[in-house]
Amino acid sequence: MSKKRKRISRRRLAGQRVLAHVPTHNLETGEHKPVTAARRYIAETGLEAPALLNVRRNEHTTDRFFWGEKGLFSAQYAEENHFLFPSLRLIVDQVGEDNIFAGLEANGSDDWEEMEEYEYAFV
């Protein structure tokens, strides 16, 4: 019997589309834990938000982080809650909501209404 594919939520898919426009940096952990390596890289390079950091733990595992104006988050959290980050809202405004979110409405009705409720809430 074939394995059923997990369906990605439209909210997360929308976040992935937004994060596709964010600069990405790749680095190795070295002797540090992945989050420590990411924080050290940010401090050493003076990295400006927003940015994605791909931290390679070993040949099989890579951790993804999002550096935003509010701190360091997992990339998955940023995908699912992209509307909470003002810098990502600027990207949406520059590229255009119609361009980024085109075609997402047709994928079902899981949590799209919930995302529209937030209307890019800034905390």
Write the layout of secondary structure elements.
Blueprint: H1 10-19, E1 24-28, H2 34-45, E2 51-56, E3 62-68, E4 71-74, H3 75-80, H4 86-95, H5 97-100, H6 112-118
Parallel strand pairs: 1-2
Antiparallel strand pairs: 2-3, 3-4
State the gist of this model:
The protein is α+β, with helices and mostly antiparallel strands and 123 residues long. The chain has helices at residues 10-19, 34-45, 75-80, 86-95, 97-100, 112-118, and strands spanning 24-28, 51-56, 62-68, 71-74.
Report on this structure.
The chain is of the alpha+beta class. It is built from 6 helices and 4 strands, in the order αβαβββαααα. It has a 4-stranded mixed sheet with strand order 1-2-3-4. It is flat, with a radius of gyration of 16 Å. It starts with 9 loop residues before the first helix and ends in a 5-residue tail after the last helix. The relative contact order is 0.19.
pLDDT < 50 stretches? none
Q: Can you write the helix and strand succession as a string?
A: HEHEEEHHHH
> Structural class of the secondary structure composition?
alpha+beta
Straight-line N-to-C gap: 46 Å
> Helix tally?
6
Can you tell me the overall shape? flat
Taking the sheet with the most strands, its summary is:
4 strands, mixed
Mean pLDDT: 84
**What is the radius of gyration?**
16 Å
Strand arrangement, major sheet? 1-2-3-4
Instruction: Find the count of extended strands (DSSP E, 2+ residues).
Output: 4
Helicity, as a percent range: 25-40%
Beta-strand fraction estimate:
15-25%
